[in-house]
Design a protein that fits this description.
With 149 residues, the protein is an alpha+beta fold. The chain has one domain: Aminopeptidase (3-Layer(aba) Sandwich). It contains four helices and seven strands.
Length: 149
């Protein structure tokens, strides 16, 4: 893994984020949906860039802070960088931030048929809030407790 930088996303990054979103997600957000999330006060967007090209976005994470909990809206890595540990690196940095800021839990919705994402989240410590076959609709909820309080 080369040297990486995680930084706050800028408006200029939205086009690259949209390309990543539509190339890797089975149910991608619309440009309008991404933009709405980006400009929401409770949402944080971070991008992952190579240290030698901080304007090149190779991945991103988007999460919403709701009182003492975090809702992980999305995490995505460009296809050619998948399987190299970049997604885990980005998630671990976010988990560290959430833990340091004393959030109690992180939850997310995942498309039931996105087996790659489900495997990624399980490998990184997320558990199903309920079994996918018990949840209604196309998505299921996964969660992780961050503190023992």
């Amino acid at each position: 893994m080369g040297k990486l930088i995680i930084r706050k996303a800028l408006v200029n990054d939205l086009a690259q984020i949209n390309v990543i979103e539509h190339s890797v997600q089975p149910v991608p957000w619309s440009v309008e949906g991404l933009s709405n999330e980006f400009f929401s006060r409770s949402v944080r967007f971070w991008v992952l860039c190579p240290s030698d090209s901080i304007s090149k976005v190779i991945g991103y994470i988007c999460f919403r802070i709701v009182t003492d909990e975090v809702y992980l809206s999305n995490i995505a890595i460009m296809k050619q960088y998948q399987g190299l540990g970049y997604g885990t690196f980005l998630l671990k940095k976010a988990l560290y931030f959430w833990t340091q800021n004393r959030f109690k839990r992180v939850t997310l919705d995942v498309y039931k048929k996105n087996y790659q994402a489900i495997s990624f989240y399980r490998h990184n410590g997320f558990l199903f809030a309920c079994a996918p076959d018990e949840s209604k609709g196309k998505f299921c909820v996964m969660e992780m407790k961050l503190s023992q309080e």
